[in-house]
Amino acid sequence: xxxxxxxxxxxxxxxxxxxxxxxxxxxxxxxxxxxxxxxxxxxxxxxxxxxxxxxxxxxxxxxxxxxxxxxxxxxxxxxxxxxxxxxxxxxxxxxxxxxxxxxxxxxxxxxxxxxxxxxxxxxxxxxxxxxxxxxxxxxxxxxxxxxxxxxxxxxxxxxxxxxxxxxxxxxxxxxxxxxxxxxxxxxxxxxxxxxxxxxxxxxxxxxxxxxxxxxxxxxxxxxxxxxxxxxxxxxxxxxxxxxxxxxxxxxxxxxxxxxxxxxxxxxxxxxxxxxxxxxxxxxxxxxxxxxxxxxxxxxxxxxxxxxxxxxxxxxxxxxxxxxxxxxxxxxxxxxxxxxxxxxxxxx
Length: 347
Hints:
Layout: E1 2-6, H1 10-21, E2 26-31, H2 35-45, E3 48-50, H3 53-58, E4 64-67, H4 75-83, E5 87-90, H5 98-111, E6 115-117, H6 125-135, E7 142-150, H7 155-159, H8 174-178, H9 180-190, E8 193-201, E9 213-220, E10 225-231, E11 243-248, E12 251-256, E13 259-265, H10 270-278, H11 298-313, H12 321-339, E14 345-346
Parallel strand pairs: 1-2, 1-4, 2-3, 4-5, 5-6, 7-10
Antiparallel strand pairs: 7-11, 8-9, 8-14, 9-10, 11-12, 12-13
Helix pairs in contact: 1-11, 4-5, 5-12, 6-9, 9-12
């Protein structure tokens, strides 16, 4: 399929790398309001550069777009693409409210096009093994399900663009921006949440509207309890990995970025030996923990390939809008709780 990229910033470069490496897709065009930014990206990766959205979307050869604009600016370009008859893959979060996501889903259905999200942290061997164990019920009665993103962003990060740290365009701080993928992974593994109680604060940054630290207590539909802790003010030399931890009456698994700190089940299976020999690690640097440019692109590549395969097979991709909506629903409920002095919010 012929891809077009909307947004030629840092995320657009990730998308270009993933599209160039993937099977089933090729980079066809790039749109950015700044013509020089679009020109720079196509000079490096190929394709045609546009600074006029209507002209970009009118190209009959263009089949699918990726959207890498600021989080709170996903709605308009995605709606335009869907209404122009293009499929769309949208960066995290799909949008910053469930109402906007529902509007996008309605447009996709009306136009008969696929709307998918970038949920790239689902696409690595560690997550494949983790999901298989969860689906097989290997944890027994799941009692604990938690996620921890203890990252660091300096003040210069927030000062680098006017939209950073704003409710309107970031949709939130350390939770919505840096932690949405890990929240998605937690829900993907543990199932839907039932209620939340939360507290947020801005401790270490200036001139931002949003939180840089959040702690939430989660009750899941299956009865498990857990914690989500999200921060951009927890410094370490190498950076803490993003962690997802599940534990129950028959097993415990702690995932740190793409490998396991713990893989321990009461009833062992043959595949456990291989997992322990190939997917374990100690304390290593987190992917993007201190430096957002350090995130690799191969998970985006697998994500894009999954969407293309789903379109060709006439099915919904595993990263469809319904899946992407779940993390936004939970995150906005956490914010609602925090704004109401930790009131329990039911989803």
